[in-house]
Amino acid sequence: MTNDEIRGFIENAIKENSVMLFMKGTPHQPACGFSARTAGALNALGVQYAALDILPDPRIREELSGLSGWPTIPQLFVDGELVGGSDIVMEMFESGELASLLGAEQPEEEAFEPEPQPVQQRPIGLENKLD
Amino acid sequence: MFPMPSPQELQDRITAALPGAEVRVEDLTGGGDHFRAEVVSDRFEGLSRIQQHKLIYDVFGDEVGGPIHALSIKTSTPTGATQ
User: Fold this and answer.
1) Is A65 an interface residue toward B (CB < 8 Å)?
2) Tens digits of per-residue pLDDT, A76-88?
3) Are B53 and A65 a contacting pair at CB < 8 A?
């Protein structure tokens, strides 16, 4: 897969999934605390989202950051727009802004689990195309 | 390669880029690669969070994700900070 193809795939994923999370690892097995917290916030809101693990190929992160101008992972896109990394997403989660942005209900304080729970996640399957 | 950065160095560089800002940087793990920066600046006025955080990331360019493995950021404006 060429860099252009990876970039095209990323652009497509952002366009086709109204809530699109790029992370290290998966929502079930996050490979980094920042990614875990961000996926955990989405899970706590019970919203459906697509997630892509950037770790299988370093070019995914290069192309993603080139596209978004954002240097770190995770990156959350909603309706094609970069919302933020884990700091911004967590701030917005705690203030209730994330819930209203996603049209979800803000969970009770004690309902929030920082550890990701099983979610209705749609695999994107870029991994399979990298060979 | 870049030398391993210190919290003080990060703090000085943010202050240099945003004159008058109130900047606090801590080394989260003591390992010299996971940092948290809290920045209060009137330069953030009228900017989205994304734009505010990008101003900080831009200070370090490619070092974020490299020697600065993780940089957690909290931004606010002087009016926001005193509320």
Assistant:
1) yes
2) 999 999 999 999 9
3) no
